Structure formats: C-alpha cells, structure tokens
Amino acid sequence: MSYCVLYFASLRDRAGTDAEQVDSTAVDARGLYAELRARHGFGMTEDRLRVAINGAFAPWQQPLRDGDEVVFIPPVSGG
Amino acid sequence: MSYCVLYFASLRDRAGTDAEQVDSTAVDARGLYAELRARHGFGMTEDRLRVAINGAFAPWQQPLRDGDEVVFIPPVSGG
Amino acid sequence: MFRLQETRIDAVTLARELAQSGAGAGVTFEGWVRDHNDGRRVLRLDYQAYAPLAQSEGENILAEARARFAILEARCVHRVGTLQIGDLAVWVGVSAAHRDAAFAACRHVIDEVKRRVPIWKNEHYADGESGWLHPDGSAVKAN
Amino acid sequence: MFRLQETRIDAVTLARELAQSGAGAGVTFEGWVRDHNDGRRVLRLDYQAYAPLAQSEGENILAEARARFAILEARCVHRVGTLQIGDLAVWVGVSAAHRDAAFAACRHVIDEVKRRVPIWKNEHYADGESGWLHPDGSAVKAN
Fold first, then answer.
1. How many Cα neighbours within 13 Å face the side chain of C19?
2. Is the Cβ pair D118, A76 closer than 8 Å?
3. pTM for this model (two decimals)
4. What is the ipTM of this complex?
C-alpha cells in the first residue's frame, strides 16, 4: 500500500524531507514507523511519539488504508 | 486637640462632607470615631473599619497628636 | 509602578512597557465595568480613592510581588472618578522569564489591590438606586 | 478562535475583541521569544506546525475551556516561522464575568497548547548550534 508520510521537527531534519510517498507492506503505524526508522535512522523510539492519521490523532494499531496521510508527532514544544 | 478628618464612600455621604476640622478631647482614633459616629449617625461599627493616621494604616489605640490627619477606612471595593 | 488616574487607561502602552529581552511570559489582568452585579443592572459607577494611602499601599503590593515571585516587572493602574460600562477600571501587568511566576504574581496583585487598597466603588443601578459597595456584606446604601 | 499565523500577532486588536458589556475580567497571556533558555543564549527561533491538526487541537482546547470555566470568550493565536528575540510567539486571551474563571481558563489554554498542539520550536544559539526542543527531556540536536 502507499502512504503519504509527513515529517516535522527533528524527524524532518533526519529524513531530509518534509514529506514522502511510502510504498509499504506495513498495516499499521507501528509497522510503518519501524520501517522508516530503520531507513532514516531516527533515534526517537515509538514511545516518545504520537501518531496522526489523516489529520487526527490515532492509536498506533489503527489499521492503515491505502493513501492515508500518516504523521509521527514528536513531543511538542509550542508556546 | 484639633484633628483633620477625611471621609470616603458611605461615610462621606453620611457626613455630607469630604473633610472636617474636628476639635475633640479624644486621645485616640477609637474615641474620635465614637464621637463622630454619634454626631453624624454613622451606621458602621468600629470593627468594620480600619484607621489611617497621616496617610498610613495605624492601630486604633495609637495616641493622636494635635493636627493629625485621621481617616476611617470602610471595607474597600476597588478593582 | 502603581498609579491612580482619572483619565482612560492606555493598556496598549502599558503592555508595551512590560516587554524585556529576558522575559518569556507576560500576563495581564483587566477589570472592566460590568453591566450587572449581583443580579442588578448597572448603568455606570464612580470610584473614590484615598489617594496618598492608595498610592503607598499599591506600591507595597507591587514590591511584595517582586520579592515573592520570580518576575521582572509588575505594574498596576487604577481609574478613579466616573466610569461607563465597558471602561477599563484596573489594569495589572506582569512579565517574567516563565509563565508560572507571571500568572501567580498577576493574580496576587489584583487580589491584594481589591483587598487592601483604599478605593471604593459606587454603583449606579438602572432602578435609580446607587450605593457604595462594602464587600464584607454591608448593604448597599449603608451609612 | 484558534489561529496559526506567519505574520506578527496584533495583540492590541485581539484584546479589543475580548471585551463585552457582561465581561468584568480579561486575562491575557503573551509568550515572547526569550534571549536565553536553559542557560544558553538564544539568537532567534523557528516554529514549525502540523497545521491541520494544530488547528483542530487548538479549537478543541478552546472549546474545552468554554465548557469547563464560566467564561465569555477564549482566543489563541500562535506564530509559525522565524521569530526574533522579543517577538510575540503566542497570545491567549480570555474574558469572563469574574476573574477566577478568566485566570483559570487562560492558564488552562496555554498549558494545554504547550502540551498537545503539534508545534515545534527550533532554537538557534549564540554558539552556532541549534536544535528542536522536545520537552520530555530529549537532547537538543535529537535525531
């Protein structure tokens, strides 16, 4: 399946891009992150991130559908 | 002795003036207020007031000196 | 800086004076004349102050806030005279490196001003009555 | 009203929009870019946001504040992009009949915005380093 992954903050710096189209066999965000972490060498472990799917926070194990927009949210630091 | 008494808020309304020169034998604010309360018919009892002498809060029993400025402070309601 | 004034309070200029390069947080409190109080419709109000004592007590409160909280600036301006609905009656502004101190100090200043500073409010109601508020429970139109 | 914007935040206009005849209290919080953080000298910073989620989460926070506190208005604007020392990064304003609710709601909104809204701060230090702040303790220059 194909997912649109957006990157922010330190993940964006590490990935070297703000977005990429990812073809993957991962069926949920957990599997997808493991794959992308290996590919880009992200240091951040899953427990430090939240997941958003199509613009809303979602559980890690929510099944992904083809074309979903997936964002891994590092700890925020606004304000 | 002679004191300058200033009135504020409901005491001013009741006294009908914002200030008066008072010749009195009272030696402290307690005595002076009792005298003025009788004269003007103030409803407020001493326990609801604070006293300021010459622009600073002072105890009721502080001895008054001739020419002192005395103010009886009703519960405040600024803000 | 504590100030009593008979003219309109310029919150914009006051807020600008709070900023400093080391300040990360600014908290302001504005007290406006409400159109109601205790279920009665208010038309306008008058503030009276015993000015010299209000001034020194206001300065004491700000000095206490600076001693007690890690703040950079604390300022307060209170109107006196006749105010209309919506008018700014009191302004408090605090700046600090961090927001905890700014919130706590701003709250402390307005609470203490209301508790200690010799300023009195006379509310004029739509039913034609008016009366000095003495907030320890004395009746309106107390004597 | 929650808003992200790349241009200067106009606190004066925002504050004016809080006023209502039934409002007796207005509390604002302003978060400014400090010249230091954790003992390091800061030159400027960048904010990045995941805009659609930041918008909906910001609106959720304001709706929660209105449900939880007796307030009339609650608004928040957050800058994104590059900011200089002293720039206003975030503005929160709350109006209410009484000050208890205004203070509590204003504090709640800024706390929740900092905790939940997907916005990230990249500080640029005087020593030439920079790094995204991930406030649960991850190092600057985390990957």
1. 16
2. yes
3. 0.93
4. 0.92
Q: What residues form DSSP beta bridges with C73?
A: C95
Spatial contact of D117 and D77, defined as CB atoms under 8 Å apart: no
Residue B70 bridge partners (DSSP): B5, B53
D27 touches chain C (CB under 8 A): yes
Chain C residues within 8 A of D27 when measuring between CB atoms: 27-30, 106
Token pair 């009272």: residue = B26
Enumerate the residues of chain D whose CB falls inside 8 A of the CB of residue C99.
29, 31, 107, 110
Query: Is residue D99 classed as helix, strand or coil in its secondary structure?
Result: helix
A24 lies in a domain? yes
Give Cα D105 distance to the centre of its chain.
Answer: 13
Q: How far apart are CA C33 and CA A54, in angstroms?
A: 46
Distance CA A46, CA A64 (A): 17
CA distance, residue B13 to nearest chain C CA (Å): 7
Q: Indicate which CATH number applies to the domain containing B49.
A: 3.10.20.30
Q: Angle at CA D142, nearest 5°, toward D140 and D143?
A: 155
* Residue C2 three-state SS: strand
Domain residues for the domain of A65 are: 2-73
Interface test with B, best of C4, C34, C134, C140 (most B CBs within 10 A): C134
SS3 (DSSP) at A33: helix
Overall domain count for chain A: 1
- Sheet with B69-73: list strands edge to edge: B19-23, B2-6, B69-73, B50-53, B56-58
Q: Does D34 touch chain A (CB under 8 A)?
A: no
CA atoms within 13 A on the CB side of B78: 31
pLDDT by residue, tens only, chain B of 79 residues: 999 999 999 999 999 999 999 999 999 999 999 999 999 999 999 999 999 999 999 999 999 999 999 999 999 999 9
Q: Which domains does chain C have, with CATH numbers?
A: 2-141 (3.90.1170.40)
